[in-house]
Amino acid sequence: MAKDFSVALLLDFYGELLTEKQREFLDYYYNEDLSLAEIAANEGISRQGVRDAIKRAEKQLTEMDGCLALAQRFEDMRSGLQEIITCAETVHEQNKRCGLSRDINEAAAQISATAERLMNA
Questions:
Q1: Is 6-68 CATH 1.10.8.50?
Q2: 34-89 pLDDT, tens per residue?
């Protein structure tokens, strides 16, 4: 079973909507990088039982995100903030080469700092 690491992001967003066991299995598999056999041994169930539980939980997460699209909006926001930071750095560099306006440098630095803060929040 190939790991789809986007499931880890979906787990962050929608994990609380799963059962405790589903969350645990996904956490073991995606975050702690345990194999199906290792999870099965720890939980006292079959490897197939673990696989089925993980597949059901992945499907639920995907369906939730299909309705709410929070993970996609998060990624879009993150990408947009990175683009803002890059543009602010370009403005700052262009200003240094062409005119050195203190106001423009301060504004570019503030834009960049705000975008960084939002990205790391």
A1: no
A2: 999 999 999 999 999 999 999 999 999 999 999 988 888 888 999 999 999 999 99
Helix extents (H) in 2-100: 6-14, 20-26, 36-43, 47-68, 70-98
- CA dist 79 and 9 (Å) reads 15
Q: How far apart are CA 104 and CA 110, in angstroms?
A: 10
Locate tokens 């589903």: which residue? 22
* Nearest in space to 91 (alpha carbons), one of 107, 77, 80: 107
Give pTM, 2 decimals: 0.67
pLDDT at residue 5, as a whole number: 58
